[in-house]
Amino acid sequence: MRIGVVTFPGSLDDRDALRAIRMAGAEPVALWHGEHDLHGVDALVLPGGFSYGDYLRCGAIASLSPIMTEVIDAAGKGLPVLGICNGFQMLAEAHLLAGGLIRNDHGTFIRRDQKLRVENTSTAWTSGFEQGQEIVIPLKNGEGGFIASADELARLEGEGLVAFRYLDVNPNGSLNDIAGVRNERGNVVGLMPHPEHAVEPGFGPDTADAMRSGVDGLTFFTSVIEQVLVAA
Fold first, then answer.
1. Over the chain, what is the mean pLDDT?
2. Which pTM value belongs to this model?
3. Reduced 3-state DSSP string for the chain
4. In this predicted model, what pLDDT tens digit does every residue of 132-179 receive, in sequence order?
5. Is a pLDDT exceeding 80 seen at residue 232?
6. Angle at the Cα of 201 (from 17 to 24), degrees rounded to 5?
7. How confident is the model at residue 77 (pLDDT cuts 50, 70, 90)?
C-alpha cells in the first residue's frame, strides 16, 4: 500500500504527512508538484502549508500545477485523495470539492486543538470512525472560513456531504460550522484541521489521560489503508 504526498513550493506539512502514513503502516511516496506522474500510488495527500505564498487565493496557483492534472483525473477514477488545510483549499479551487475557503472572520491566524464531530463515515478516509464521534485535531490557519452559496450549502447538508463539523468553538467563521467536506463518491475529502499532527502519543493534543497523548488523526490514514486493501 503506497500513499503519495505532493510537495508544492511553500508546503510545510508534507514531511509530517509522510511520517503519519508510515506510522499507519503504509509506504509513503514523496511526489513533486512539477511532475505529471503519480508513480502508481494507491491514495494521495495534498498537505498543508502556504503554497506559492498564498498569492491570489490560497491554493489557487497550486490547483493549476502540472501534477494536479493527474490528481483530477485519478480522483475522477476513484483514487482516494485527502486535502489537509492548504490541500483542502487546492481541492476547492480545482472543483474537486464544493465551496471555498476565505479569511478567518476575526482576521487573524489561529492555532488550537480543535474538537470536531465526524458527520460522515462513508468515505475512504473516515470509515474507521463512528458516526457522530467527537475527536480532537490540531488546527492552524488564517484563511479557513468555509463558504458556499445558499443552494450549494443546502445540497451539502441535504446529501450528507459534510464530513466534519466544528464543536464548542467555530474558529474561523465557517458556515454551518463546517470543518470538512467530501465529494459524492466518497473518495475525496478535505478538512482544515491537521490529522497528521495527531498520530503519535507524546506529540498530539492533550487528552484526559495524559498531555499530548491524542492520536485521533491516525484513523484517517488507517481508514484509507483498510479501504484500499478491501477494494483490492
1. 96
2. 0.97
3. CEEEEEECCCECCHHHHHHHHHHHCCEEEEEECCCCCCCCCCEEEECCECHHHHCCCCCCCHHHCHHHHHHHHHHHCCCCEEEECHHHHHHHHCCCCCCEEECCCCCCCEEEEEEEEECCCCCCCCCCCCCCCEEEEEEEECCCEEECCHHHHHHHHHCCCEEEEECCCCCCCCHHHEEEEECCCCCEEEECCCHHHCCCCCCCCCCCCCCCCCCCCHHHHHHHHHHHHHHC
4. 999 999 999 999 999 999 999 999 999 999 999 999 999 999 999 999
5. no
6. 40
7. very high
Work out the average pLDDT over 16-30. 98
Q: pLDDT grade, residue 108 (50/70/90)?
A: very high
Of 128, 132, 116, give the one whose Cα is nearest residue 222.
128
- The residue length of the chain stands at 232
Which grid cell is 28? 509513503
Residues involved in catalysis: 85, 194, 196
Domains in the chain with CATH codes: 2-231 (3.40.50.880)
